[in-house]
Amino acid sequence: MALDLIIVGGGLSGLTLARIAQSRGLSYRLFEARDRFGGRIDGVDGVDLGPSWFWPGHSRMAVLAKKLGVEVFEQWSTGDALYEDHSAIQRGHGFASMAGTYRISGGMPALVKALVAKLDASCLHLSTKVQTITREDSVIVTTSDGKDHAAHHVVLALPPRVAAELAFSPSLPVPARQPLGDIPGWMAGQAKLVATYPMPFWREEGLSGDAISQIGPMVEMHDASDPVSGKGAIFGFIGVPAPHRNGQAEAIRSAGLVQLERMFGPKAAKPEALILKDWAQEPFTATRPDWDFNGPHPSYGCPPALRSLWDGTLTFGSTEFAATQGGFLEGALERAEEVAAMLIK
């Protein structure tokens, strides 16, 4: 018997859609290719390696955190920011650009963990890659273990270009394939370097942890400390383009450590951990065209050609397709609500 719904992708959007489906009594299965849930949400010891913030006005995120009982706190922004160019390092130059944003205690993975705990574990499948999607009387999803799964609706809660690489039978029409391949994945070309310490020592020295550098390899840095563990952390966005990062992880880590000491002093030279998360190297997040995107935040949304595919049985459900908040965590929740409304209608 065909399921009501198959969800491909266990990130925030896919998990939220599963939660809505479960609450409405729909039969569903969720397949995630990774060995963990969260998708582009990842972290270590309470420090985010993926998205870190949500903003005032992102009401869905605030409501979800409250319902799941996870603590929200405001991004640390007290103290001087640093600015570095080839002539000097200036203190008190600039401002804490993320002041007023919100984070999750324990990192965003704590939100994912709490969300997964609300779902029927028998409906969730990790390390299960979808190979082909076939349209018959129902939609047949074939997974990497060779099994076929039938559903009345399939939702691809995947980055657009990753979804485009799936095998469809029959093939998606050309007017759909083109826009799907043109949509850059949110975060897909980015990399973050995270350094953790026993405590946020820079705060005692009157620094906010925010820094801008014209030298790099980190071009924008922030305090990423976790109030649950009490440990300190600084993370930075790597300014080296993805094609030039390829195969250079150790060199970037080494240069990043030198930069941390240069900007924050000798204590910064001895982190407990130094982690480089290059999302461009994650095959379930990025494709090769994503490496070349360096523009501003894209104007996301669901192109008309990608609506009502296969008579409405195939839908795209990642944050990039959200009507107003695409590319944000809020957009993942928004898109899950949009898709649920379409399916339940």
TrEMBL record:
Entry-linked SUPFAM superfamilies: FAD-linked reductases, C-terminal domain, FAD/NAD(P)-binding domain
Q: Which organism is it from?
A: Litoreibacter ascidiaceicola
Q: Which GO terms describe its molecular function?
A: oxidoreductase activity
Membrane-traversing stretches: none
Outline the extent of the Amine oxidase domain.
Answer: 83-341
One Pfam family this chain carries? NAD_binding_8
What family does this chain come from, according to its entry? Belongs to the flavin monoamine oxidase family.
Q: What is this protein called?
A: Monoamine oxidase
List the InterPro entries: Amino_oxidase, FAD/NAD-bd_sf, Flavin_MAO
Q: Which domain of life is it from?
A: Bacteria
